[in-house]
């Protein structure tokens, strides 16, 4: 059956893009497979004694400081940190001028044991009632070893508020991870949407698991202490360790330690290690353990999914079955707590107030890499039609350690006569972007499927990060930045029109302008 012709604007964009990036191979009608040759550092974790993991000076000094958005409206922040020597205060002092802290808030403290590893004291403190668009300074820890940081609150909720997100995935703690983090910090993003797989501590055994969560916390602090990172969980948050009998024998979901044995509780694993403050869990369906969380950032509605099924042993499967029947928890896609949560969540979005709708999940739905090929298929079958119905603008995923961007395509139409089903160009579909190229110790997924499928617009196996710069209710600029030997290079970029606002009458007016600005855009970057 003939494929539906690509819309002319995409063709034009493609022509222009291939004109600029001469080194890319253009696969006939399909997208671009970049042939960029990179020199990567070996994919090994940075040694423990490296300065990037340095413990801050002073007795019980706060470390692993990280913040995340604390409410729906962007007027609250959750500040988290770890003290190593003794519990110490869970108090945050804060204010709008440096060194003068008019306010204070009291948090809470938790700790955990994993095998023989005993965690530090993990503090979470919610500070709320903040002013929009304001720089806040904050201080944590005891007087002699206290530390000070700052953050900026988002602008007032307004459909035309502008904001710049960074998108990072599968980060880990290698020299490539460091390069990604450095480049992200140069790109002036205001909040990170993290697509899952944080520390890769699960690649270690016994007490080293906890130690590598701690090094990772100190490693990312350079950014996470100063701006919200909004987390989605990945499969490396599973920590499935059957060789540790004392952990795997008894599966009791109410114990944070043992709940790590089940792939449906990745967000709980993150919570145990201090990366999902529990007040956040009251948002959406996350408290079920099936793990979706959600966040709203001023005029942008971000939906985060925690959907990933890992192959588990028979024994664990049996346990899951028992748990499902006993506690109403399911681990398949449809009718899961996550499915129900997402259905309600999409209904709640008011695009007049929050024009941009972004979905963040771990395993990609459209992926033409050999790695994890078709793994997102069960989710695609269930969620893709919702993405289209609710006019999702972008779907970000990680999991595959490479970069890929799709055209606007959908695969929701089924031909009952021929039994055929395949992706076709669809203006009402989101753009799917895989940015699992943060730089962890597993290395790059260098093998793309050949030929490049029609849905794939651009793909390259390099480390990097993305930014999404929302300008107003109709326009956003998207960039993917390849780390490229230490220089920040915008490799893939395009201008995005809002799916909700562009599909009404305005679209026609914008159209002419769009073609002109694609030209300007490419030239500018
Ligand atoms: C938490 O810390 C306290 C005080 O050091 C300790 O007694 C307790 O065993 C720790 N709890 C866990 C679960 O490690
Ligand atoms: C479905 O497939 C049949 C057999 O290949 C074809 O004749 C028909 O045109 C297709 N229908 C649509 C709506 O594409
Ligand atoms: C939205 O932003 C785009 C890009 O900066 C600009 O061209 C356009 O005029 C803006 N629209 C409105 C209504 O301000």
From TrEMBL:
From the Swiss-Prot or TrEMBL record, what is one GO molecular function term? acid phosphatase activity
Pfam assignment, any one? Pur_ac_phosph_N
InterPro entries according to UniProt: Calcineurin-like_PHP (IPR004843), Metallo-depent_PP-like (IPR029052), MPP_PAP (IPR041792), PAPs-like (IPR039331), PAPs_C (IPR025733), PAPs_N (IPR015914), Purple_acid_Pase-like_N (IPR008963)
Keyword annotations for this protein, in alphabetical order, are: Glycoprotein, Hydrolase, Iron, Metal-binding, Signal, Zinc
What catalytic activity does the UniProt entry give for this protein?
a phosphate monoester + H2O = an alcohol + phosphate
Q: Where is the Calcineurin-like phosphoesterase domain?
A: 164-403
**Root EC class:** hydrolase
Its cofactor is: Zn(2+); Fe cation
Q: What's its EC? A: 3.1.3.2
Gene3D superfamilies found in the cross-reference section: 3.60.21.10, Purple acid phosphatase-like, N-terminal (2.60.40.380)
Where the record annotates domain Purple acid phosphatase C-terminal, the positions are 429-489
- Residue span, Purple acid phosphatase N-terminal domain: 62-153
Query: For this UniProt entry, which residues form the secretion signal?
Result: 1-30
Specify the domain of life of the species encoding this protein.
Answer: Eukaryota
Q: Which family does it belong to?
A: Belongs to the metallophosphoesterase superfamily. Purple acid phosphatase family.
Q: What is this protein called?
A: Purple acid phosphatase
Source organism per entry reads: Fagus sylvatica
